[in-house]
Specification:
The structure is a homodimer of 598-residue chains. Chain A is an alpha+beta fold and 598 residues long. Chain A has twelve helices and eleven strands.
């Protein structure tokens, strides 16, 4: 059955591949899974192309007739995707309705897939790195999965289409569409949280600022409310270096093994399944990439000032190729490592559900999934769950620390970009140039030994064999150089990718903290001007203290895992390099011995 | 006093820089030292330029008036340079006179000096190697020095001129003169030996064939005669692998050290002096490049079927630069090694004179020098000194061995050229690319450590220092790569240069032997046809056997030193490479340790 949608606003196509739609026009969708914020489909005139997912509402067969544009409240499967219709996921009163036209509603960038322009691995790395110079948000938008579209996930499933236009080829139309070869998407931090306009402290006019969207503003203004269960409590304690997350009393880790290809629907759909084994349960569960993707979306929504590690990028094609699977698994292992290392993330319900729910028990999985999607303790309410040290922080000191960290992240970002570029180039040189040079030396020795073999005298046979062996040694050393980057440089690249994700998170986190601090300053001014009573300002102060504690705890955690990770990675790199040069030395010593009896 | 010369033949200039001369025209020479067979001077019209040295005779003040063009006999200082006037150095009757115009008299290639086109070292190597593909004779013509011009040697002396036109700049006229940037000169093997035309076996019509010039033809035809002293006897013995030179019963070696700059004529002339210390005398003597050059000319003249190792190339400028001196010294050491290793060359009088004559005793030196230049046992007469095993060789077997060796030298020449090109390129890559890549990695680590230093927390200081140290380690490793080629690849290049010299000698040596064999075949035919008596043919057979024995002994010697040299050089190369990679490993291990307490 063709999927239909209604245009909420006019959209005029601006680029090849886009199609214009008029308000209230009924559209046909080829998939309800958007591609970086764009739907593909046809308008009522039958013109086919892309239009912004946020400009339309999906009309479901069971809901199309009863759909009420003014409805809000809890998000449900029968309702339009809340992300695009701007319906809050939580149970708040909404002060504006999704169908009211928003002038500054940002249009997503058109999706362009690197796999269709088929760059070589080297070009890919090079361009990717170039891209990162301009914009760091190379990880994809989190998707709000629903049970219904669970199996239609465009990533992680095979390219067998059940809609007009084959899935595998349908984005080819947009090949070469402008210079931006790689997807650049921003990571929204949770849904926009709307709140009552009762406070005297002014509201941020930009409804799309991170401070507002994260729930930071609503919380500071005292508009968040919810029942915090004991199990949800999150403690910030005063440590040696300032506020820090209370350690996880039951630390664990989790392995990710055996990525295997699975099929369902009689082979119509294929996907890769990973075996996850958490140390605290020792029970293996099977998870797909889309499960990670779903979990990631929940975490980003829930934790406004925690840097959720990015999951590896989505990929449209080549998902069953061994190299890609191996690379994705490594990315997931790094991700898992950062998840289990984080005192707050490691313990949160949705992650535990993900790690422990029996893969075979579909009902239990769906229950946990719905529960997580209905979690009220997200965004503004997350801050309610935080308990802080008794003594409030000195805001000036906090501001100075935050500013210092901001400068630090800028420098670290620059240096990791440079290191990443160098490492990629170094790997490329070893795989191509270095290998070639050593093998050319080997070949020249080989040719010399073959010339010498024309002299049939007995006393030269030993030398000829020794030179021939030396030739083979250099041939082998060439191979060693080509193989080495996957052992020592690639892990550095993986580490840097993860940290570039974190570094991309921090501007938003810092923005939330700074927004809270601004509210404190405003409230103090209001109190001085007699526009606000002291108790209300004190409340703002206390809540800002909570946000500051959480932010500093997160920064402290970042530094600790950074030192841990980079130390371990540098050691690993040097160990691999030492082993590499020892291997070369060994090969050369073997060759040298051949001359002893020559 | 201006030096004058008389043109023996017409010469029409064909290239820029050359000047035409007419027969009997009186010319002014700027130096009596020729440059690759060319004199520079002016003709009677005052036109200045180059003309072939072989087309003129020098008019000496004390000899010009009495000079007789028909004179022959012993060559002396008062006579024109016998090489160019084609007057035999030995005491033979000449059957043709030098002033009779010879149509196929080969004109030498114009001299072009690489130092004036100032290629970079890399371009130099590259072009040189390219050049070698076309022609191997990159070593210079041996010069027949005389006592008078001893101090005017253009090489090895300073560029202070005492003639119009400064010496330093006088070849600039020829800069960019056609594509042949590098000197290509052929090495004539001794003087043309003229003999009586009494034999019934036909003479080679080409008076300039190596077979003729070397004296091989004259010897085979029984025209060589001379008194062989016991001390001059050279024995070919039958060894395990065929004929071989009798070993030197008193083997020795000779070191070449302390190249030092010397001046004379109140600083007007500078040259480099080398300290030579032969092991059999332990007396140090001082020698200049021109002494080596003079000795080389004597050896080439004397030994028709011995591959005299080439001395390092002449160089017009930059002779006092440290790199050049070091490189020349290495070349001379290799040369000396091949000289002292050769059973015949090591023992010959002129070499012993060179090695042992007290540098301070100028009179003794000049006596030995004149004696060597008047040596009668050169060329054709050299073969008189050879005694062979009793049993004559089977000529068919000899022919097959010679053909096999010819094919061998071709293959070896090709493979050494390829190896040389590879080694040069590999050195260049290590000095530039490899160094750069490792240092870029170092720099990126340095930048990372500097970014990390912005985090002032105590627990990260150790890591920052360790990364900083790692950065320095990679900086150092880059330097190691750049320094390494001089330790392992350059010696290979030196070895290959020496062997390319030998390989360039062998076509002539083989030509002499083949010429002799042809005479045997001709004589057999003549005997069958009744044109020659059996005794005469038997004489030709016997003399051809002597040439064959000498040639095979020389080939045997070549294989033996080849195996010795290449074995030693490959071992040296591998040992250096092992030490290099161990040094890198050591540096990395040092860096790794810094993380232990980080």
């Amino acid at each position: 059955m063709a999927l239909r949608a209604r245009a909420l606003y006019d959209f005029n196509s601006e680029n090849p591949g886009e199609v214009s739609v008029r308000e209230n026009e009924i559209l046909t969708l080829y998939s309800e899974q958007d591609i970086d914020g764009w739907f593909e489909g046809a308008n009522s005139k039958g013109e086919r192309g892309l239009f912004p997912a946020s400009y339309v509402e999906i009309l479901r067969s069971d809901a199309a007739s009863t759909f009420n544009n003014n409805s809000c409240g809890t998000s449900g499967d029968a309702f339009p995707d809340s992300r695009y219709a701007n319906i809050p996921a939580g149970g708040f009163d909404a002060s504006y309705t999704p169908q009211s036209k928003v002038e500054n509603f940002s249009k997503p960038s058109p999706p362009v897939f690197n796999t269709f322009t088929a760059p070589t691995q080297q070009q890919h790395q090079h361009q990717q790195q170039h891209q990162q110079h301009q914009q760091h948000h190379t990880y994809q938008q989190p998707s709000q999965g629903s049970d219904d579209d669970w199996d239609d996930d465009w990533d992680d499933s095979s390219t067998v289409a059940d809609e007009p236009g084959t899935v595998g080829g349908r984005y080819r139309d947009f090949e070469g569409n402008g210079p931006s070869t790689y997807r650049v998407s921003t990571v929204p931090r949770g849904n926009a949280q709307q709140a009552k306009s009762s406070a005297t402290v002014s509201r941020n006019l930009n409804r799309f600022s991170t401070f507002v969207k994260s729930g930071g503003e609503a919380f500071v203004l005292g508009e968040a409310s919810g029942f915090v269960k004991d199990g949800d409590k999150i403690c910030v304690v005063m440590g040696k270096y300032g506020p820090e997350w209370q350690e996880n009393p039951y630390p664990f880790s989790c392995t990710i093994d055996d990525p295997t290809k699975q099929t369902k629907f009689k082979g119509m759909k294929s996907y890769i399944s990973y075996k996850l084994t958490p140390t605290h349960t020792q029970n293996q569960v099977n998870r797909r990439y889309k499960h990670f993707d779903w979990l990631y979306a929940r975490l980003v929504e829930k934790f406004p000032v925690i840097s959720v590690p990015h999951i590896p990028e989505k990929q449209a094609t080549g998902r069953f190729e061994e190299d890609f699977i191996s690379k994705r698994r490594k990315g997931l292992i790094w991700w898992m490592n950062h998840m289990t290392s984080h005192p707050v993330l490691a313990r949160c319900d949705v992650f535990q559900h993900f790690l422990t729910c029996n893969s075979a028990d579909e009902k239990a999985w769906k229950q946990g999934k719905r529960k997580a999607e209905k979690d009220e303790m997200v965004g503004a309410n997350f801050f309610l769950t935080i308990s802080t040290p008794a003594a409030p922080l000195d805001f000036q000191e906090v501001e100075s620390k935050i500013d210092g960290f901001k400068a630090f992240t800028k420098r670290m970002d620059d240096s990791t970009l440079q290191l990443n570029a160098t490492v990629n180039e170094f790997a490329r040189k070893q795989i191509t140039g270095f290998k070639k040079e050593y093998q050319k030396v080997g070949l020249s020795f080989k040719v010399l030994s073959q010339a010498f073999e024309m002299d049939q005298q007995a006393y030269s046979a030993g030398l000829n064999q020794a030179i021939s062996f030396t030739a083979e040694a250099y041939e082998a050393i060439g191979e060693y150089f080509a193989e080495q980057p996957s052992k020592d440089l690639d892990p550095i690249t993986d580490l840097l990718a993860l940290y570039q994700g974190h570094l991309a998170n921090y501007p938003d986190i810092i923005h939330v903290q700074k927004g809270a601090l601004t509210k404190v300053k405003e409230s103090q001014k209001h109190v001085e001007e007699g526009k606000m009573d002291g108790a209300q300002a004190e409340g703002i102060n206390e809540r800002c203290n909570i946000i500051s504690c959480a932010t500093l705890a997160e920064i402290q955690h970042f530094h600790q895992i950074r030192v841990r990770d980079f130390k371990a990675q540098m050691q690993h790199y040097l160990q691999q390099q030492i082993a590499f040069f020892q291997k070369i030395t060994g090969k050369l010593e073997e060759a040298l011995q051949k001359y002893d009896n020559a």
